């Protein structure tokens, strides 16, 4: 990736569009290291976990879910890897198992190494319900492939922002101070971990394709944090709730790293279902999620996720996220 000193670094937004297109399409750091984690995670038989990483019970060519039981008996519940694969499995396994039980199905926990691959599986009809980042949601919404089912209501004091984190020793105080520096983005379709800071640069007339000296695609927000903490990146764009969870788990992290910018608040990562899916099943999933906070087991599951309860969908809560996506789409002319 070109450095900030490139003569193209601060062209007008019209010419920036071409650079942003190449930026969004650029290959990031390989995620092959995650496959070792996936191979180590072989929880059988409850729930079935589809990693689509070469397991015998996964169709490698199509990426289709092939659990031991027929799909008609399984609830194919996908969770975007906002956390690492291992953390996502640990955090969400009980939620997936509980909702499958409440809907009378066997649980099939679907994980993918990137938001794009999860979205493609969703749009191919291989997923019944998905807990996703706002980025894939607004893209699927624009394609007419998904609809909101429920959304989480976080515990008091929590909101969903993009947070820019740097080492405590860094002199950077804002995004533009990172010219020529390295940054960790979690995923190309991550809303808080890529799209929000990218659009911020475009609005300032900067070119994301040449602004940073290096971009690392870490695969998840917690791995972006680790990249900065280990000195592999000068900064990271993060899901604010993942950052909060990280410093609660390791308070010393908050002394080694600092937040230099928070975006406006956005609608929380939603739970979505495919348009044209089984309406009876979707209604059953919605009922189970909305009632989860009414018993002790459900409360415990939600507390692990810093969620107070799930509430009926409010499409207006995602208007700002849709606006970010549409502005970036207009700037790049390449986002389908």
Structure description:
Helix 3 (about 85-100) runs antiparallel to helix 12. The chain has about 325 residues and is an alpha/beta fold. The strands form 2 sheets. The protein has a 7-stranded mixed sheet with strand order 1-3-2-4-11-5-12, with helices on both faces. A 5-stranded mixed sheet has the order 8-7-9-6-10. The chain is globular, with a radius of gyration of 20 Å. Mean pLDDT is about 80; it is low at about 1-70. The chain has 13 helices and 12 strands. The chain folds into 2 domains: about 15-25 and about 160-260, 3-Layer(aba) Sandwich (D-Maltodextrin-Binding Protein, domain 2); about 35-155 and about 270-330, Periplasmic binding protein-like II (D-Maltodextrin-Binding Protein, domain 2, 3-Layer(aba) Sandwich), CATH 3.40.190.10.
Structural class: alpha/beta
CATH topology of the largest domain: D-Maltodextrin-Binding Protein, domain 2
Shape call:
globular
Radius of gyration: 20 Å
- Write down the CATH class of the largest domain: Alpha Beta
Distance between the termini: 24 Å
Low-confidence stretches: 1-69
Give a short account of the largest sheet: 7 strands, mixed
